[in-house]
Each structure stands twice: as C-alpha cells, then as structure tokens.
C-alpha cells in the first residue's frame, strides 16, 4: 500500500544474411510505409507497421480549454535522477507550472527528488506555490495510482521501463497528457500494450511525448532534413554505437528482498530494464529508424558478458553487436558495450551513394571524404532534453496535441528485436518478434516488496544468463 511521506520544509567476413529474402507480408508493409514516407517525414516521426478506474474521459477540446495562460499541473511517477531532471526542465518552460504530486517505490527517491525540484523551483510565483506536494508524496508499488488520482494535467512516467506499459495505459485511462521515458517497454507484449493505449490517447486528444530527445535537438533535425533531401544520395549502410564504461555492479545486501534488490539494480535485469541495447542504445537505433523512415525487418547478432563475471549480481550482457536489415537490403551495424578501458563512442553514421554523414556530429562528406556541410548549431549539452520539454509544453499551451507514442514504441521494439537476436544467436524477423507472447514479468500483480521477484537465482545463487544457440526468445 502506498504511503504518504511526511511534509518537510526542504529546499540522471562472412555474410549470413546476404541474399536473405524478406517475407512478402513484411515487404508489402515496408513498401506501403515508403509510399507515404515523404508526407510522414514532415512530422518528424517513424511509421509503424485489473486496476481501479482512476479518472474520466476528456474531450479533444480539453487542450484548448485548459491552456493558454493557465497553470499546467505536473505529476511525477518515478523519482530517480531522470524523472527529477525532466520535471525541473518542464518547470523551466515558459508559462506557469506546478508540481502537484509525486510517487516512487522508495521514500529516499521521493525525498531527494523533492529537495532537488524544490531547490530550483520552490519559490512562490504569480500563480501561487510552484512545488505543492505537501501530503501528495507517495511511497510504494501502488503510489503511482494516487498521482493519477490527483488533478495533474501532465504526468511524467520515469520509473524503470518494465512498469511503463501499465503506467501509460492507466494514465491514458485517467485522461492525462503523458511524458514517458524510453524505452516504453521491455518485451513485445508491453510494446503492443503501449500501442493500444496510444490509439486511445489519440481518440481522447491526449498528448504523448517520449524521451527520445534527439528528435528535438536542432543539429539532429537540421542534419536529418538534409539527408532526407538527398544530401548523400540513397542510404546503403549505417552504423550506430553506444559504447562506454557503464554502471558498476553492487554487492547484493542480505537485508533486502529479492524483488527490492532487482528494483534497485534495475539496469541489470531484463524484465525491468531491458538490457543496455533497449535502455540506452535505443537512442541510436531510433535515429537510424528516423533517418530511414521505417523499422528493420530482421536482425542477427551476438553478445555476452566479458566484464560481468559474477552471475550472482546480474543477468544482462555487457556487449551486443547486431546487424539489422531494412527494406532494399539497407544494413545497420549496431554496437553497444559496457566495458571499461575500451574505445568509446555514442554516435550514428550513414553511408550513401553520394557521400556519408556523421549524424551525431552533423557533418556531411562527399565520396572523397571532403566535408561539404557542417551544422553551425552548437551541440546541446543535454542532447535536446530541455528542448523536448519546451516543445511539449508550448504545444499544450497552443492547444496542439503532439504524439510520439508510435515511433517510441517502434524504436523500443527495434531494440527488443536486437536483444532477441544477440541472446539467441538466431536471425529474428520483425513480425515474429513483434507478435511474441514472451512476457518477462506480470507487474500488474505486484503489490509489495515482499512479492516473489520475476527472476529467481538458481540453487547456486547465480542468475540464469542467455546462451546464444540455446536460449529461446520467441
């Protein structure tokens, strides 16, 4: 049961797929995407192939009525560093905003988020108190329900991603506009659940923003626009990287439940974090989907654990290398790694019939390697996170209803398909991955930290880790 935290005055060289034929069902779907790609690209998107009632339906006119000069009220579900910073950025936007409710599984997160937000925006403004959460700070696995019962206009869903489909579905049922972090799910059933809820959001006229903020960064937008206009001809090959040191594993405490341990170490468990390829590398995969205007039709790859030798602490890989195949045999070579002391890069690149482009640096070269264009825009320190909030809140105040749910789900599914490929060592096709019924956890049923965790250690204390060639993913 959720608890209210006490109010306090306290101020994130062989080619196994060469010549592979694309199934007719996937080929026709991709061709249909391409037919209307030019129109869709103008919107900056990518085309897609038991709780209590927490609110009432809102009409499409809600945005036009509620905004203008009115205060936009914010609810925060998930008080880690990303959620904290996202709310601070939202409250930096033009116009009156107020934080009215917040929730997290852990009280320490609620209180640290409150202190950070209050220190930035705690002063009373012309529209009254800006951080108004006395009696509205909730702790526990069901604390999110109380945020949805508040009068928040916009809710921020920034818990670990395993909970995202449930929270998103219920937020839309409650008639809330939503900002949700990526990825939007950790398995295919979760992706389908998000897509279904997103259709309801469209019907209700509810805004949906997703934390794939490169879509809002000026350099990326300028570069992608030039590539769409043919600056390097037709794309034939792309590369995407998120290679870095990663996070350290923490010793497993003796005085916490298995579920609590996994909630606190969520990056290292697939049901809640999705592995690095979904949790981080999704940004790079999303950029390539955005560039090509479609999702891949298949993937094959490999990965493993070189630095994470202690299976008593984690079940995820520390590196993945995946080759994605798009329509017309365009390939994406994808790498992500969490190993210290190695070459690091977080970037996206594309090679075309008339040149190449470092998308992350916004540099275009001709076939000889000569730079023919470079953006004059300065790189954003936060990769567009602040601009994403400016864009969302400005749209709401104008009565516009942006929706990023479809491409957020598509890019999430792209990452999940890549994980399936590297875990299994098999070629995985989009349709079979998307239609998979493999659900990693039933988060709807979780009520207490004493509940049985979705993943249990083996008798020797080790967690089961995927073995390519043996692990089943479909």
How many helical stretches?
16
Helical amount among residues, as a percent range? 25-40%
Q: What is the second-level CATH architecture of the largest domain?
A: 2-Layer Sandwich
Strand order of the largest sheet: 15-14-13-12-8-11-10-9-16
Give the strand tally: 16
Mean residue pLDDT:
88
CATH topology assignment of the largest domain: Dihydrodipicolinate Reductase, domain 2
CATH class of the largest domain: Alpha Beta
Low-confidence stretches: 7-69
* Shape call: globular
Computed structural class? alpha/beta
Span between N and C termini?
Answer: 35 Å
Strand content: 15-25%
Biggest beta-sheet profile:
9 strands, mixed
Give the radius of gyration. 22 Å
> By CATH's scheme, which homologous superfamily of the largest domain applies?
Dihydrodipicolinate Reductase, domain 2
The tally of domains stands at 2
InterPro entries: Gfo/Idh/MocA-like_OxRdtase_N, Gfo/Idh/MocA_oxidrdct_glycsds, GFO_IDH_MocA-like_dom, NAD(P)-bd_dom_sf, TAT_signal
Organism: Rhodopirellula baltica SWK14
Protein name: Oxidoreductase domain protein
GO molecular function, one term: nucleotide binding
In words, what does this structure look like?
- This protein is α/β, with parallel strands linked by helices and 474 residues long.
- The chain folds into 2 domains: 50-211, Rossmann fold; 215-388 and 408-445, Dihydrodipicolinate Reductase, domain 2, CATH 3.30.360.
- It has 16 helices and 16 strands.
- The chain has helices at residues 24-35, 37-41, 62-66, 81-91, 107-121, 143-148, 164-173, 188-204, 218-228, 258-264, 270-273, 276-279, 282-292, 385-397, 405-424, 430-434, and strands spanning 3-4, 72-77, 97-104, 137-139, 154-157, 177-180, 208-210, 235-244, 298-304, 319-325, 331-338, 345-352, 355-358, 363-365, 371-374, 428-429.
- The strands form 2 sheets. The protein has a 9-stranded mixed beta sheet. The protein has a 7-stranded mixed beta sheet with strand order 1-4-3-2-5-6-7, sandwiched between helices.
- Strand 14 (363-365) and strand 15 form a beta hairpin.
- The two termini are 35 Å apart.
- The relative contact order is 0.16.
- It holds the Pfam family GFO_IDH_MocA_C3.
- Residues 220-356 form the GFO/IDH/MocA-like oxidoreductase domain.
- InterPro entries: Gfo/Idh/MocA-like_OxRdtase_N (IPR000683), Gfo/Idh/MocA_oxidrdct_glycsds (IPR050463), GFO_IDH_MocA-like_dom (IPR055170), NAD(P)-bd_dom_sf (IPR036291), TAT_signal (IPR006311).
- Residues 72-211 form the Gfo/Idh/MocA-like oxidoreductase N-terminal domain.
- GO terms for molecular function: nucleotide binding.
């Amino acid at each position: 049961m959720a608890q209210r935290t006490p109010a306090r005055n306290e101020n994130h060289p062989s080619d196994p797929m060469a010549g592979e034929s694309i199934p007719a069902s996937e080929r026709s779907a991709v061709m249909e995407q391409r037919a209307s790609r030019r129109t869709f690209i103008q919107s900056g998107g990518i085309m897609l192939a038991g709780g209590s009632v927490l609110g009432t339906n809102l009409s499409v006119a809600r945005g036009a009525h509620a905004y203008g000069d009115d205060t936009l009220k914010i609810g925060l579900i998930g008080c880690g560093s990303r959620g904290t910073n996202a709310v601070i950025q939202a409250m930096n936007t033009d116009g009156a905003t107020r934080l009215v409710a917040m929730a997290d599984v852990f009280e320490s997160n609620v209180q640290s988020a409150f202190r950070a937000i209050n220190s930035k925006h705690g002063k009373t403004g012309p529209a009254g108190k800006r951080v108004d959460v006395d009696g509205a700070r909730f702790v526990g696995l069901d604390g999110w329900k109380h945020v949805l019962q508040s009068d928040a206009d916009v809710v921020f869903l920034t818990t670990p991603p395993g909970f995202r489909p449930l929270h998103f579905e219920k937020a839309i049922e409650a008639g809330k506009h939503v900002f949700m972090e990526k990825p939007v799910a950790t398995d295919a059933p979760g992706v389908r659940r998000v897509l279904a809820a997103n259709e309801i959001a469209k019907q209700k006229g509810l805004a949906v923003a997703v934390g794939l903020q490169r879509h809002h960064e000026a350099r990326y937008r300028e570069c992608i626009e030039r590539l769409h206009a043919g600056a390097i001809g037709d794309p034939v090959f792309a590369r995407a990287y998120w290679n870095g040191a990663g996070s350290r594993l923490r010793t497993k405490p003796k005085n916490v439940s298995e579920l609590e341990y996994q909630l606190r170490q969520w990056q290292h468990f697939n049901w809640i974090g999705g592995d690095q390829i979904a949790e981080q590398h999704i940004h790079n995969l999303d950029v390539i989907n955005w560039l090509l205007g479609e999702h891949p039709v298949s993937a094959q790859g490999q990965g493993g654990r070189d630095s994470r030798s202690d299976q008593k602490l984690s079940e995820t890989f520390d590196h993945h290398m995946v080759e994605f195949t798009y329509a017309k045999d365009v390939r994406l070579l994808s790498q992500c790694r969490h190993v210290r002391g190695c070459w690091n890069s977080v970037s996206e690149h594309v090679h075309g019939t008339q040149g190449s482009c470092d998308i992350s640096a916004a540099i275009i070269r001709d076939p000889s390697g000569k730079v023919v264009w470079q953006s004059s825009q300065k790189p954003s320190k936060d990769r567009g996170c602040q601009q994403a909030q400016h864009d969302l809140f400005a749209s709401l105040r104008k009565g516009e209803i942006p929706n990023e749910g479809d491409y957020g789900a598509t890019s999430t599914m792209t990452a999940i398909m890549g994980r399936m490929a590297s875990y299994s060592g098999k070629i995985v096709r989009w349709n079979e991955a998307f239609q998979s019924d493999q659900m990693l956890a039933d988060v709807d049923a979780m009520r207490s930290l004493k509940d049985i965790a979705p993943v249990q250690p083996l008798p020797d204390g080790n967690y089961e880790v995927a073995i390519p060639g043996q692990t089943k993913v479909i």
